[in-house]
């Protein structure tokens, strides 16, 4: 995918996924041609991610999908130098939904999901910015792409992410569940 107009190409594939999903297709593997899969791979994206965006539409719309994908693309191209790790985390490696850090439920889970999203290591069975993630991020008034960039900027220091989240919720106690 050419860098200058990658968003146009991505929009075409996003719209295609949305149309196919709305017509009842639930097989993400059948959404795109090999060439289209190659275009997605060039920005660090997989068909399952577009399937997830289509499945969660309209709660997760084009603008959010673009910004999330843009954060992943930037990380993929600039940090990972366009190379995948070839690894996918197992769903069992993720903290349970009710796990807490500093009294904040869901935070350990979304931190690992964001790290895995940035590295392209989320299993197809999990989605970054699922309904639970969106509820968490809305509660703390953090855009999903901004959270990805905060995790990236923290450079592996989870406490920096915790502090960032706590700073975003000054009007209520940090232990809000």
Task: List the SSEs and their pairings.
Blueprint: H1 6-22, H2 34-41, H3 47-55, H4 62-79, E1 100-101, E2 104-105, H5 107-119, H6 131-139, H7 144-153, H8 158-167
Antiparallel strand pairs: 1-2
Helix pairs in contact: 1-3, 4-7, 5-7
Q: Please state how the strands of the largest beta sheet are arranged side by side.
A: 1-2
Shape: globular
Q: What does the radius of gyration come to? A: 16 Å
- Span between termini: 42 Å
Count the strands? 2
Category from helices, strands and their pairing: mainly alpha
Strand content: under 5%
- Show unreliable segments: 173-177
Figure out the total of helices.
Answer: 8
Reading the helices and strands in chain order gives: HHHHEEHHHH
Q: What level of helicity do the residues show?
A: 40-55%
Structurally, the number of domains stands at: 1
Q: What's the overall average pLDDT, rounded?
A: 95
Biggest sheet layout: 2 strands, antiparallel
């Amino acid at each position: 995918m050419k860098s200058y107009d990658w968003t146009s190409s991505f929009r075409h594939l996003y719209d295609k996924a949305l149309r196919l999903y709305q017509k009842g297709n639930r097989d993400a593997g059948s959404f795109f041609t090999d060439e289209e899969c190659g275009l997605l791979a060039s920005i660090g994206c997989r068909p399952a991610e577009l399937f997830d965006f289509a499945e969660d539409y309209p709660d997760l719309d084009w603008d959010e999908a673009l910004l999330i994908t843009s954060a992943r693309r930037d990380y993929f191209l600039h940090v990972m130098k366009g190379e995948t790790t070839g690894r996918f985390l197992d769903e069992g490696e993720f903290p349970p939904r009710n796990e807490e850090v500093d009294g904040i439920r869901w935070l350990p889970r979304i931190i690992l999901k964001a790290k895995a999203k940035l590295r392209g290591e989320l299993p197809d069975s999990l989605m970054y910015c699922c309904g639970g993630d969106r509820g968490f991020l809305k509660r703390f008034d953090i855009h999903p792409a901004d959270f990805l960039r905060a995790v990236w900027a923290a450079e592996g220091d989870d406490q920096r992410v915790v502090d960032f989240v706590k700073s975003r919720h000054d009007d209520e106690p940090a232990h809000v569940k």
